[in-house]
Design brief:
Blueprint: H1 3-16, H2 24-37, H3 39-42, H4 57-69, H5 75-88, H6 96-106, H7 112-115, H8 140-150, H9 157-166
Helix pairs in contact: 1-4, 2-5, 5-6, 8-9
């Protein structure tokens, strides 16, 4: 069954039976949108047909569709998206695809490595503490490197060469 069919089944079920387990996040979102946009938001979904509890079947159906459509987003992302939408588009209430687009932009991003399952390298080991005579002339870094090499701490030949050049010990 396609994703659209699942949404349609949920929406149809919402109009026929009371929903004791309403998604409170979507309910709060609808309350926020109703408070911000007034009946302009609610009238998009209202059918005027009431269920046994006296609630509008169209709004219940829309809440189920929005619950399904926003299920991939955390409550924090939905809240951030709502505040962004209110500030970016204060005059018009959103439809679901517009709100999903704002949610996508508000969702945290994964790095290329995280998306492809690459394991991060371990952090580098801190350089060992070595004693050297600091002069304070901006080249103490080179003295620290050469003192470490003399103490038996390995460094690449290039790093050693640059340290010696900084101190005028080789060309």
């Amino acid at each position: 069954m396609s994703d659209f069919s699942n949404v349609a089944v949920l929406a149809q079920a919402a109009t026929q039976a009371p929903q004791p387990t309403e998604n409170m996040g979507i309910r709060k979102l609808f309350m926020l949108m109703h408070g911000a946009y007034g009946n302009g938001f609610v009238s998009k979904f209202s059918t005027g047909e009431r269920d046994a509890q006296g609630k509008d079947k169209g709004i219940r159906s829309a809440m189920q569709v929005w619950t399904h459509g926003l299920s991939q987003f955390s409550p924090d992302v939905i809240e951030l998206a709502a505040s962004r939408f209110l500030s970016l588009y204060p005059e018009f209430p959103p439809n679901l695809p517009q709100f999903q687009a704002i949610c996508h932009s508000a969702a945290p991003r994964k790095t290329f490595a995280e998306q492809h399952g690459y394991v991060a390298l371990p952090p580098p080991k801190p350089a060992p503490d070595v004693e050297f005579d600091a002069v304070g002339d901006g080249r103490d870094w080179a003295r620290r490197i050469l003192a470490g090499v003399e103490a038996g701490h390995p460094r690449s030949p290039t790093v050693v060469l640059f340290a010696k050049q900084a101190l005028g010990l080789s060309k």
